[in-house]
Amino acid sequence: MYIYAKSSEVKFLTAECEEIIHFVQKELRDYFTFDTRLIGSGDKKLVTQNGENGPFDLDYNLIIQRDKKNLINDPKKIKSLFQNSFNKILKERYNGFKYASDSTSVLTIKLIDDGLKFSFDVAILIENNNGTYSRLVDDKTNGMQRYIWNKVPSSKNYREKLIEIKNNGYWNKFKERYLKHKNEHLRKNDGVKSFSIFLETLNEF
Fold this sequence. Notes:
globular, Beta Polymerase, domain 2, 6 helices, 9 strands, alpha+beta
């Protein structure tokens, strides 16, 4: 059953993630400057875990601001630079955190402490001239592997609605309803993503 992760533990591990990312910023300063944004359940203060000892995760967007070596047309090289930098920092400075594994659209770093305890994902993005974003993706369609910039679909702006819910004193009720829906989907084992459950709850309010 899903419960909310302890805020103290979430706060501690958020600080750990951002410290690691800060070291990566320094490591890659000759190549890029980039902005760091906590997204997903961490940003919305809705981090959950399946059971008291279950793992939880955080998600970050790393948005490239300056490409000092003009590598924008070589996304494979960019992904490799970030992955190697994370692995170097983790090896030199952190015990328990495992190497950054490359998945379709993120690098995943896991904290192993007698089993999986925590993980965080980092996506690499660029801002387009029209204000939209593109994410670095490992595209494996048609039996091929290539690294491309994939435009991020824009979702409806939900932040104003969330602010209204908080301002009107419904935040605790919102959290109770969101957790209820997460457990309903867990029982159904229907694979519905957390963000979809969040929007489902938001629309009810």
